[in-house]
Amino acid sequence: MRVLVTGAEGQLGRDVCELFGRSHEVHGLSRDMLDITDVAQMEQVFDRIQPHCVVNTAAMHHVEKCEADPVQSYAVNAVGTRNLAKVCAAHDAQLIHISTDYVFDGAKKAPYVESDAPMPLNVYGNTKLAGEHYALATWHKSSVVRVGGIYGVHPCRAKGGLNFVQLMLKLAKERPQLRVVDDEIVTPTPTAAIAEQLVRIADAKAFGLFHATCQGQCSWYAFAKRIFELAGVTTDLQKAAPGEFPAKVARPSYSVLENARLKELGLDCMPDWGEGLRRYLVGNEDVKS
After folding, report:
1. E strand or H helix at 166, and its extent?
2. Which end of the chain, N or C, is less packed with Cβ atoms under 10 Å?
3. Which of 255, 169, 194, 219 has its CA nearest to residue 11?
């Protein structure tokens, strides 16, 4: 199967290229090579590659920048996804589109399943939700996959190049004490695990809406604590007071997804979040150095 990966230079895109490349022919294109807001360029790329499957990791996902420029955020996250779905339909190519846990407001305080009604709190979540609707309404061979709490080996440019694990280990070397919020609940999920799950979805030709995160949940403080335990770090870690680090943009305080449809179809291969972290650190010893 020929697989086209958009946003291939990104944190998730690079792992997607690597995992799909183990069993399929992969064409990974960076934003410079394929801008999903440019329909003419997209059609030229599809005519040349003739993909059977497209994995769209391209997005405008810096939350503060989306809030500051909602027009551009909508152009990329919503209209860009619609463009891609239309071209996939014209070429009979399966579309796997990456979305986010930020389509929910966190008020449920229990893991969200695919049938729960979205209620985004910010521009990023709203434009990603619009992209979901465009993909599913435009092309019946679309798979929308919501992820959250992601971190990976490769740099995330939207976050200054460091993921949460790398940032915590870096700060631990620089400061005698760290304070981390304990009132925001997430499911940390490594990009390699997501990429493996996407391969399963592609191979099974499973269409529709999916949640794909690790199992379980924790606060950012508990995540940092487990990072330090596994990395052998002894820096003093404290819980931050509520509101000590106010966010510039509203975000859900509870952001946990349940992989209900994947489990229903027997496709879920996501590990527990702690096991995902262990694999990440063991496989990337240089992160701890």
Report:
1. helix 164-174
2. C
3. 194
Is residue 282 assigned to a domain?
no
Residue 179 included in any domain:
no
* Res. 245: pLDDT tops 90: no
How many domains, the chain? 1
124 labelled catalytic: yes
For residue 275, give the nearest of 202, 163, 192, 211 by alpha carbon. Answer: 192
Question: Minimal CA–CA distance to 183: which of 153, 228, 218?
Answer: 218
The parent domain of residue 141 ranges over: 2-154+188-217+257-273
Q: How far apart are CA 286 and CA 213, in angstroms?
A: 25
Q: Which strands make up the sheet holding 208-211, listed edge to edge? A: 25-29, 2-6, 53-56, 94-100, 142-147, 208-211
Cβ pair 50, 91 in contact under 8 A:
yes
66 occurs within a structural domain? yes
β pairing state of 53-56 and 189-190: unpaired
Token output for 6: 């958009």
Helices (H), 175-219: 191-204
Q: Is 131 among the domain residues?
A: yes
The whole-angstrom separation of Cα 62 and Cα 76 is 12
Residue range 162-199, pLDDT digits in tens: 899 999 999 989 898 989 999 999 999 999 999 999 99
Q: Which one of the listed residues 112, 124, 254, 280 is annotated catalytic?
A: 124
* DSSP-based three-state secondary structure for 70: helix
pLDDT digits (tens, 9 = 90+) for 255-288: 999 999 999 999 999 999 999 999 999 866 555 5
CATH number at residue 135: 3.40.50.720
Taking the C-alpha atoms of residue 135 and residue 140, their distance in angstroms, rounded to an integer, is 8
For residue 208, pLDDT beyond 70: yes
